[in-house]
TrEMBL record, chains A, B:
PANTHER family documented for this protein: ALDEHYDE OXIDASE 1-RELATED, XANTHINE DEHYDROGENASE
Entry's Gene Ontology molecular function annotations: iron ion binding; oxidoreductase activity
UniProt keyword list: Molybdenum, Oxidoreductase
Record-linked InterPro entries: Ald_Oxase/Xan_DH_a/b, Ald_Oxase/Xan_DH_a/b_sf, Ald_Oxase/xanthine_DH-like, AldOxase/xan_DH_MoCoBD1, AldOxase/xan_DH_MoCoBD2, AldOxase/xan_DH_Mopterin-bd_sf
Keyword Amino-acid biosynthesis tagged: no
Gene3D superfamilies found in the cross-reference section: Aldehyde oxidase/xanthine dehydrogenase, a/b hammerhead, Aldehyde oxidase/xanthine dehydrogenase, molybdopterin binding domain
Residue ranges occupied by any Aldehyde oxidase/xanthine dehydrogenase a/b hammerhead domain in the UniProt entry: 23-135
Pfam families for this protein: Ald_Xan_dh_C (PF01315), MoCoBD_1 (PF02738), MoCoBD_2 (PF20256)
Name listed for the protein in its UniProt record: Putative hypoxanthine oxidase XdhD
Amino acid sequence: MSTKNLQVVNTSLPKVDGISLVTGSARYVDDFTMPGMLYAKILTSPHPHARITSINVERARAVPGVHAVLTYKDLKPIRHTKAGQSYPEPSPYDRVILDNKVRFIGDRVAVVAAETLRIAEEALQLIEIEFEVLPAILDLEKAMQPGAPIIHDEQDASGIYDASRNLAAHKAVGYGDVEQGFKEADLIIENTYHTQRQKHCALETHGSLAYLDENGRLVVITSTQVPFHTRRQLAYILEMPMSQIRVIKPRIGGGFGNKQGTFMEDLVCVLTLRTRRPVKLIFNRAEEFHQGYMRHPALIRLKTGVKKDGTIVAQQMSVLADTGAYGDHALTLPTSAGRKILPLYPVDHVQFECHTVYTNLPVCGAFRGYGATKGTFVVESQMDEIARALNMDPLELRLKNCIKQGNVDRLAAAFGEKIPRVMHTCGLTECMQRGAEAIGWREKHGKPGNGVVKRGIGMACSMQGSGIAGVDWGAATLKLNDDGTFSLFVGATDLGTGSDTVLVQIAAEALGVPPEAISILSSDTDLTPFDVGAYASSTTYVSGGAVKKAAEQMLTAILAIAANMSGEEPTNLNYHNRQIIAQNGKSVSLREVALYSVYETKEQLTITASNTSHISPPPFAASFAEVEVDTETGQVKVVKLVTAVDCGVAINRQLAEGQVEGAVTQGMGYALFEEMAFDDQGRLLNPNFADYKLFNAFDMPQLETILVETYEESGPYGAKSIGEVPINTPAPAIANAIYDAIGVRLFDLPMTAEKVLTALKKRK
Amino acid sequence: MSTKNLQVVNTSLPKVDGISLVTGSARYVDDFTMPGMLYAKILTSPHPHARITSINVERARAVPGVHAVLTYKDLKPIRHTKAGQSYPEPSPYDRVILDNKVRFIGDRVAVVAAETLRIAEEALQLIEIEFEVLPAILDLEKAMQPGAPIIHDEQDASGIYDASRNLAAHKAVGYGDVEQGFKEADLIIENTYHTQRQKHCALETHGSLAYLDENGRLVVITSTQVPFHTRRQLAYILEMPMSQIRVIKPRIGGGFGNKQGTFMEDLVCVLTLRTRRPVKLIFNRAEEFHQGYMRHPALIRLKTGVKKDGTIVAQQMSVLADTGAYGDHALTLPTSAGRKILPLYPVDHVQFECHTVYTNLPVCGAFRGYGATKGTFVVESQMDEIARALNMDPLELRLKNCIKQGNVDRLAAAFGEKIPRVMHTCGLTECMQRGAEAIGWREKHGKPGNGVVKRGIGMACSMQGSGIAGVDWGAATLKLNDDGTFSLFVGATDLGTGSDTVLVQIAAEALGVPPEAISILSSDTDLTPFDVGAYASSTTYVSGGAVKKAAEQMLTAILAIAANMSGEEPTNLNYHNRQIIAQNGKSVSLREVALYSVYETKEQLTITASNTSHISPPPFAASFAEVEVDTETGQVKVVKLVTAVDCGVAINRQLAEGQVEGAVTQGMGYALFEEMAFDDQGRLLNPNFADYKLFNAFDMPQLETILVETYEESGPYGAKSIGEVPINTPAPAIANAIYDAIGVRLFDLPMTAEKVLTALKKRK
């Protein structure tokens, strides 16, 4: 199979919602208002760890215009259910809806619904609370020390983790025999790396609007990546039948993993159920910083054994991660640092261990890259250390060891995946070769120059998945309209990524129609078939596969009708450009088939197909960074960043490039600037875009994106995924480039000017 | 098959939208408002027939707040397409969107959209028009006379009718040899009857709100009975792809055939397309009277030949009907007077002829009963005349001649129906027997008493169809949700009739779940499968059949999964009360199957099924009226009305009874009071509920409804239809009761006190 003869797929079709987005007609949660709507506001904890000994809301309730004030006293202490794709069960990791204990500054204490936001804010200030302040853990290394305060001392906090040690998750897994492997090695390199709390910073903050529809069903318009999971969670938390809840995702302004969390939907719905009024809550930026997810910080130790010729024989990684006060991603995310990245270099002996602890800091969760980002920083930083130790070209070392087509991800099996994860496609070598060519690797590497400002070149590789193998799935429904156009219904969730466009392209291609002939409706639990939602780089591969299946079945049904009309067997029909030509010379158009089905056979053609990810085929990426380091200030400037990505076939080339550009920008911020900073009282110091430094237009280097095409047979039209993998490579590529420039290795993200300067001074 | 073991069907489940209706949360068109919404108002003709020689809208356009003023000069003269289920072609019968000629008082001249209704009304008054007034035809008998003014002299007014004679439609059809039949008869009775213009008087007037959604697609929320037909018509009239138009029917307050018309949607959409703003138009009551449909008035001649023993041998009916200035129902409705009713008494020789003419009066169209109502008045009035001439009991004459199970409707074949219309069920005899029993026929008939107020008993029978054979169809989609509940999507249109409830009952019965487990979404062309809409008594039989098929296929799919789960063949499973018990003893619940399909097989179960009406099985009705006639005033009071109906199995007994009660009330109004009255200038004299007398609470007799159950195998759970047939019988039953009371036959509807008194005086 190839991309030859494709009409719609692999082109750069403008976004189907593009005009609405640029003209401002697209509606985000905050664009919805309703008669009688109330505004909600959450009162949060000022203490990192405390027990509520007394709470009095009488004065707040008495404020005119206040319709509800709720605290833990008003609600059953129901614990949030597991995130992600799992049966509806309470999660031992997650919070109860409102609790009598607070575990971080920003933890929920009470919620108010009032006729204006100002009244709600006023009422919050009138809530009288007494806290018993408890000692707090603000350092992940101290969480498991004997005598540490216990963050989850509640009765039901027993289960798969060890609450009494503040251990949120633990996993040890591997294959081969690392001890043996290290014995066989000629050289062993071992380092410890530190990665930071990064904030997603989607331009749209979280928002939800709940209301009761005319039949009394609960509707939630919310900025979520996972409408069906949200419905499941709300049904559990609210103790309502799922059929009485409808979750709608309108246009949303970015997710990046943050909008997998149910941070407000539960409270907004409770307020609507109590007041019988529409209730809206939109986080401001500070609330988003405190109450949303963030990337898990971690200490990661990596030990690698290599032969003199550069052959890697053993790798051992141990992760100590901080999930904050809660966190349903405590197991799956930090383990992904190894699970997703150690397979990059297939090695005979691998050992991985992870401990995730609770601290009295805000909650960590899903973030684009999902553990692979920190794993890549560690593995790819160390690869350059190994190359230096062996005096090899880092590119050559990687090319020698890297994963290739036909290889099997043995760690996936060790993690319990049932179907062997074979690399049916792997463009990583070509990514490295073409990226090296584009940056001028051979000419520029190892030539820092003599000035105050040194120049360096660095590279890094990464891989990711396409949905979670054996877990993620989605479905698509296609309806044929009277005029030969189609309505496409998908549970898949466009976060601004353009997935609606990609899915329309797949449908149009498979149906042989122009994209204008497809109307898409996505992300409404009432109206669309099931989909796990947008995470784990799943939409194009998983949901797109469902769309392709549905379209193919639809075309078969259409040809059966055309066969009827033309008096020929379906096998004797030729379909091209919305015209079906029979061997007997008769020809009918798609529109004629549609009219025939409406007016003659009298049958509504509607097809639903489902699709899942069996082995999560990885996309691959290689980034090459060229940096300038000012040795007097420590300032690092990225001059050029080349990223070559194997995402299989790009369904929409421009959108794929957009994903790469967005991801590497976020990756450069992670490398150089972004970090949530706390004081010694657990207070977040930079919950705003003035003090939390994002990578912006002035910081941008010259970007170059190379799409290395492979054809993944299991994906729709050869597609794998692209949304996450390019975020992983900038940080290690820049770290390696800094080393190339100034001979200093930074083990601690972000690599600020201060750290560079300190490291330079230390070396001197 | 029988109704034994039914759990949900055949009960009186409260309406699924009942709470929303009684609490006022249900939303009708006028309950929707949108930011920036404009109000539209139509300027109509003050002349019954005129040409616009000059029109100046400059002053109107200059009014602040006016956003658009449109006349025929601004629009392409596109003719409305055919109503009902037909390919999208222009209708030779219907109007062009805005024309330079007006053909009745109330015909559309111009339309305005402004920021308030007051501004729109003000602007209308500033439009300056000069008319060339033309001679008008206000009497259907004069329409085809030589030299009559030609109402449709436009160029494209050629086609299947003879515009040059004002002939809108003509049909002659029959079987056997009527001349021979009349020769064989011992007695021939021939009379001419006149039936009037009746107005539907749905409590909600027509209303539409059009807007462009965020993607620029045109959405119309409108009080229509036929969302899919409206979409088709709008696509044609607006020259837009159908896929760019979405039609939504919200809650609506009655249709009765009137809401099959596209009286405003086209103009509202044009205004939205021109102004890019939401535009709403709600008819006031006077506009509804002038611009909506009304029942066709007709002169009907009926000639019947009978043997001395009462055997009917030949019937000949000729209809001269008036469609008003336009009317897409000009052929199908007036011909239904014979087509639907002559089969009531299977006769060897039948001849039917119909001429429908244009006049310069408002437009006639579909109305509950659709021609059968006037046909029943004629046939059933004459049956009593025959009985009197033969000195037979009218009940016995009917029982002797009436259609019975196994009979074939030979007229249907003559009209071109391909499948023989066999009466697989026919409860008419039982309807008559039980109705006669309930009214006390034998005791009371022929005993008018001696006072000033005479008492009389009369009866009449009728039949109708269940959808249009070979034409009407609908589809239903069922989606299984995670929790074992279902979403039901139907194009079928609930007009307040309760069809949403009936369809939920059918789905619940077939799926073996309580009705609460089904969420229904109906009447949205984007979201639901196709359905022809609510007319011709089709919804329960046709759309209900689709729901049952979809539910049965869904249950099969569910059992296949359960078989998988329990390791048994599907044939070895027993399904009861949402539990599937395998022969091997394993048991799984419906909810477990749903969870299994979400979390294990990973498949969205969604089923779409379609269903059509092959032979339109008739429901039957017999009404028995007891009246008091004041011989001094002519006033007729209905004392009691018994109506027995064979609708097959009533899916919802209470709703079925409600249909009967509503229909006979409307039928009594038709009998005694209701008539649109015009002066000799073609001006409607009573366009309001003060002057147009409806049958109201004070007029109500004791009502009794008897549901005579038959089991129609082709219908869902034995159902046929019920919405229309009971409207047909009150008028002739009352006419016959009046005759029984005072020995006077009235041939002219409505039978007002004035007419009764005049007839009484004439007789004396």
